[in-house]
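Hi, here's the filled form for the chain we discussed.

Project: internal
Contact: R.S.
Residues: 352
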Amino acid sequence: MSRMSEAMTMDPAASARRAPLKAAIIGMGKVGHTRARVIAERDDVVLVAAADVNTSAAAAYPGIRFETDFRGIVTDPEIDVVFVATTNKVAPDVVCLALQHGKHVFCEKPPGRSVADIERICAAEAANPGCKLQFGFNHRYHYAVLEAKSMVDSGVFGKILWARGVYGKMGGTDFENIWRSNPEEAGGGILLDQGIHMLDLFTHFMGDFSDIQSIVQTMHWDIPLEDNAFALLKTPANQVAMLHSSATQWRHKFNLELCLEEGYITLTGILSSTRSYGDETLVFARKDLDGRTGKPGNPQEEQMFFDKDHSWELEVAAFMDAVTKDQPVKWGNSADALRAMKLVFGIYGVGR
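And the returned structure, exactly as it came back:
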């Protein structure tokens, strides 16, 4: 049946149920603009309002309501869904207020400046069980990560023995002056800002960690937050994960290695808007103890290359499915966010 034919056969009540939900974005920086682009591509949600302290952001969105204070928008009964893309300091207040006013909420990571922030959010979520809440851990939706997760879950290589992750960037010429280097706004340095993605992937593949050892330092940049974090994590099943999160990599780098009982999986590069982390590649191989390839210790590898990043679209699609179909949030839910934040601050606590 065509969409027009379907519409003609609908009763008015059914048509109303299918009307796009009205969304607002709080925080119209780079990520806010990305969420606006994704929303514009969908037919189940429409952007009707936005808030940002920078009024110049309004020029890109003619025809929608724009305010400098988020409160009026978040409490408006006409708004159904709120996307939160603010600084870490502001995000918990926006999320809690939105939940308290019956909004479904999608919030970027990290969900605040402390574990207490996410615990406050979790309390607001529990008090408003009809609202869906999801956090922006979009790395789970990159194609290389999706393929690796499928392989691990299939058991084709057995269980994971250990993981090793490196996520680093160079910082940039203005790195010392941005809000992410201000403890009042950010709450943490490179580990909380970027390394949290790798920690989330560790838990995505391996579950909870019960033991943490770490070194957290400011090695180069003149900032009151860490620019490097080194962590060694262990699960109750004695699986081990190693992390290096760095703002002194000088070359953007993403690398995640998973060593399993019968083989290994390596993810190199992660697609971004700048493509500065290189090509997104998945390499995997089965262990070859007998040297059947004639080169012991150098098994035959298979490679997969990915040249499209649809993680932002897939993530919002999953959130909107949870909202419109009244399903639980599968990935990036409050339990995932709390787990990641506890790891971050566990690393801080051991290292300081």
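Let me know if anything looks off before we file it.
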